[in-house]
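<purpose> Linking amino acid order to shape
<body> The protein record starts here
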Amino acid sequence: MNVRRFLPGLVLGLIILLIAGGLVYWRGYRLMQHAAAPGPPAPAPEAKEGRKIKYWVSPMDPKIISDKPGKDPMGMDFKPVYEEVGPAMAPGTIAVDPNTLQSIGVRTAKVEVRPLSRVIRAVGKVVYDERQLSVVNTKVDGWVTRLFIKITGEPVRKGQKLVSIYSRELVPAQREYLLALRNLKTVGKSSFPEMAEGARRLAEASRVRLEYFDITPSQIAELEKTGQVKKELTLTSPVHGIVTERMVTEGQFVMAGMTLLKVADLSTVWVEADIYQYELPWVEVGQRAEMTLNYIPGETFHGTIEYLYPYLKGMTRTAKVRLKFPNPRIKFKPEMFAQVEIKSPLKPMVVAVPTEAVLDTGEKQHVFVALGQGRFQPREVKLGVQGTDRLVQVLSGLKEGEEVVTSAHFLLDSESRFREAAAKFLGAQEPGKEGAPPAAPPAHLKH
């Protein structure tokens, strides 16, 4: 096959193909240039909406704003934010479309003037009344010859015998007192007043010595009547109560000052309860309190606040309150747990709002006041005490009859802060404003 015969035809075909490809490329390039050429300007959004544009904001990041249209760093077109139609509003005030209000669930409540009260509930513990605790001890050395109370927890009456002690110091003391009495009878009628007075003083000193040994007046009277010296000292109960501790047994040697028994009067008891710091303004000495116990269902017991301790517990940050309850039938036993209710007196008529209406930033508290027609204004308030029914006292910032937002106010708060910040930024960009920077907006806002 002769290739030379077909070579001119192949070359001509290649040339035709190159020319056709160049024409197609040129046509496409011209179409792209025509599409990229700027067309007639689109109508301004304010002309379409009939409102003036305040600023432009990125649809992806609301923190990025600009004073002119363009694209944000992510290539998205800025969206316009229009000025509100109507009278001028205070900084931070926002207007929300009624449909939006319904969708986000905004609810409001009226500001009321009413009395506040509070019921404080706490867990308490029954303890001994410390003023009714007694310790039985001896002021002489000796041996326990007889123990009348041998069981811890046994009830005793005032004056009941508890323990007998033999002491070598008691016999000389009693004999000395008897001799002093005989001397007083002999010398008391002397014509020399000094001798009579000396005899009287000696008898009195001997009697006081016996009293210092805890010999009761009745025992001393019996000694004076019979003249018989007793070798044992009998100690009696100083109060009506329960023997809570027994430290001795019969035959044991005891020393002066040693505790032998402890007796507690349970006719009244204390109940110690812990309350939180914010509840302290509602607690005062003398207030009435109620107590219930699980093991006595259906009964409520009444007492009073006797003391409020002037310090807080380090671990729980709570204050201890001491309540006093009568206990005639010994129903309340120390170390029992009880449920306590402290009903505080009513505060005078105060301005009050629901607690959920208050936004607390840690430094300030504020609420959103509903102005009507979908407008909401943030307002700083100063709060007082918190009462029952989730109401809190407002010392300043609101008045009776105003309406505050009680739900979805976090959404309103974020929108209010954003608009206020945007207004401050755009105001700083306007030439001639005091404190306005001489340069153009920051680089990330230029478009």
